[in-house]
Automatic annotation (TrEMBL):
Family recorded in the similarity comment: Belongs to the ATP phosphoribosyltransferase family. Long subfamily.
Gene Ontology CC entries for this record: cytoplasm
Catalytic activity, EC: 2.4.2.17
Role: Catalyzes the condensation of ATP and 5-phosphoribose 1-diphosphate to form N'-(5'-phosphoribosyl)-ATP (PR-ATP). Has a crucial role in the pathway because the rate of histidine biosynthesis seems to be controlled primarily by regulation of HisG enzymatic activity.
Lineage per the UniProt record: Bacteria, Pseudomonadati, Bacteroidota, Bacteroidia, Bacteroidales
Protein name in UniProt: ATP phosphoribosyltransferase
Pathway(s) this gene product operates in, as recorded in its UniProt entry: Amino-acid biosynthesis; L-histidine biosynthesis; L-histidine from 5-phospho-alpha-D-ribose 1-diphosphate: step 1/9
Cofactor(s), names only, from the UniProt record: Mg(2+)
Record-annotated ATP phosphoribosyltransferase catalytic domain positions: 49-203
Reactions mediated catalytically: 1-(5-phospho-beta-D-ribosyl)-ATP + diphosphate = 5-phospho-alpha-D-ribose 1-diphosphate + ATP
PANTHER family, per database record: ATP PHOSPHORIBOSYLTRANSFERASE, ATP PHOSPHORIBOSYLTRANSFERASE ATP-PRTASE
Domain Histidine biosynthesis HisG C-terminal: 208-280
Organism of origin: Barnesiella viscericola DSM 18177
Gene for this chain: hisG
Highest taxon in the source lineage: Bacteria
InterPro entries listed in its UniProt record: ATP-PRT_HisG_long (IPR020621), ATP_PRibTrfase_cat (IPR013820), ATP_PRibTrfase_HisG (IPR001348), HisG_C (IPR013115), N-reg_PII-like_a/b (IPR011322), N-reg_PII/ATP_PRibTrfase_C (IPR015867)
C-alpha cells in the first residue's frame, strides 16, 4: 500500500483529487477522514495542510505527496521532485508600491520586506548580495506596505490582480512554481512498483490534457491539401466513406495550435470537423 499526502482543502485540493480520479483511482464517497484507502488500487490518501506535506514525506509518514514547489523549496526538506504536475502554477515575486520608480534590485537594500516565505527570500537576497530586513507574516502579506508594516512584499502571484488592487507592482520574479509529486528514494520494492504505475497513469492523463482528437470529411481531390496542413503529426488516419469521392481524416492536435490549424483545414477543403477531448494517451 502506497500512502500519498494531498492538500485537505485549498487551491490544490480539487485538481489533486481530479488527477487521482482521472488516473482511475476511486476513493469512497461520504464522510471523509484523515486517511482514506482507495477502493480499487493499493493506495491510501492522507489529507494534510499543504505546509505539512514536505515534512510528512521526508519523515516517511507519507510515501509521496502532491504540493506546490514553493512549499518544497521553503521547507528545505530532503525530498525529491518526481514529477511536475502542470497545475497550481504561480510565481514567487518581489513587489513594491506602484508609485515608486524601481531602479533595480539594489533598491531592496536596507528595506523591510514582508513575506510568508522567509527561506526562499533570504536565499535570494543572499545570492544577490542584498541586505534587507525580512518580516514574516502568515496571511494577507499584500496589505503590509499599505499599512506601513513593510516597504515591499515577497509573495505568490498568479494573475497579478491582488497586487493591482493593493497598488503594488511586481518587480522581480524569483521562483516559478506548480504542483509537483514529491518522494524520497527509500521506498520498498512493492511501494516503488505501485509508484511507477501511478506515475505512468499520471503521464497518460497529462499527455492527453493538451491534446484534441479531430475527425473531418475531405473530398478526395483536396486530400493532399488537407494532409499538408497537418505536418509533423504522425500519420493521420485516412478512411473511405460510403461516397467514394470523400474520405474521413482522423488525427490528434495540440490544443495550443487548435484555432490556427482548424481555420487552415477549413480553407483547404475539410468539412464536418468534429473535435473530441482525449481522456488518456498512452505514449
Ligand atoms: O490550508 P492550507 O495551509 O493547506 O492552504 P494554504 O492557504 O496555505 O494554501 P492555498 O490553498 O492558498 O495554496 C496552495 C498552493 O497553491 C500554494 O502553495 C501555491 O503552490 C498554489 N497557488 C497557485 C497559489 C496561487 N496560485 C495563488 N494565487 N497560492 C496562493 N495564491 C494567492 C497568493 O497568496 C495571493 O494572495 O493568491 C493571491 C494572488 O493571486 P493573484 O491571482 O491575484 O495574483
Ligand atoms: Zn498552507
Amino acid at each position: 500500500m502506497l500512502r500519498i499526502a494531498i492538500q485537505s482543502k485549498g487551491r490544490l485540493y480539487d485538481e489533486s483529487m481530479a488527477l487521482l480520479e482521472e488516473a482511475g483511482i476511486k476513493l469512497p464517497g461520504g464522510k471523509r477522514t484523515l486517511l482514506v484507502p482507495a477502493r480499487n488500487f493499493p493506495i491510501e490518501v492522507l489529507f494534510l495542510r499543504d505546509d505539512d506535506i514536505p515534512e510528512s514525506v521526508a519523515s516517511g509518514v507519507a510515501d509521496v505527496g502532491i504540493v506546490g514547489l514553493n512549499e518544497v523549496l521553503e521547507k528545505r526538506c530532503p525530498v525529491g521532485v518526481l514529477k511536475k504536475l502542470g497545475f497550481g502554477r504561480c510565481r514567487l515575486s518581489l513587489a513594491i508600491p506602484q508609485d515608486i520608480d524601481y531602479p533595480g534590485r539594489d533598491w531592496f537594500t536596507g528595506k523591510k520586506i514582508a513575506t510568508s516565505y522567509p527561506g526562499i527570500l533570504s536565499d535570494y537576497l543572499h545570492r544577490n548580495g542584498i541586505e534587507a530586513d525580512i518580516h514574516v507574516i502568515t496571511g494577507s502579506v499584500e496589505i503590509a506596505p499599505g499599512i506601513r508594516l513593510a516597504d515591499a512584499i515577497f509573495d505568490i502571484v498568479s494573475s497579478g490582480s491582488t497586487l493591482v488592487s493593493n497598488r503594488l507592482k511586481e518587480v522581480e520574479q524569483v521562483v516559478e512554481s506548480e504542483a509537483v509529486l514529491i518522494g524520497t528514494d527509500s521506498l520498498s520494492g512493492e511501494k516503488q512498483e505501485i509508484l511507477d504505475e501511478l506515475i505512468f497513469r499520471f503521464e497518460s492523463v497529462q499527455a492527453a490534457d493538451d491534446k484534441k482528437y479531430i475527425l473531418m470529411n475531405v473530398p478526395q481531390t483536396k486530400l493532399d491539401d488537407v494532409l499538408a496542413v497537418l505536418p509533423g503529426i504522425k500519420s493521420p488516419t485516412v478512411m473511405p466513406l460510403a461516397d467514394p469521392a470523400w474520405c474521413s481524416v482522423h488525427t490528434v492536435l495540440d490544443e495550443k495550435r487548435f484555432w490556427e490549424i482548424i481555420n487552415r483545414l477549413k480553407a483547404a477543403g475539410a468539412e464536418g470537423i468534429v473535435v473530441l477531448d482525449i481522456e488518456k494517451m498512452i505514449l
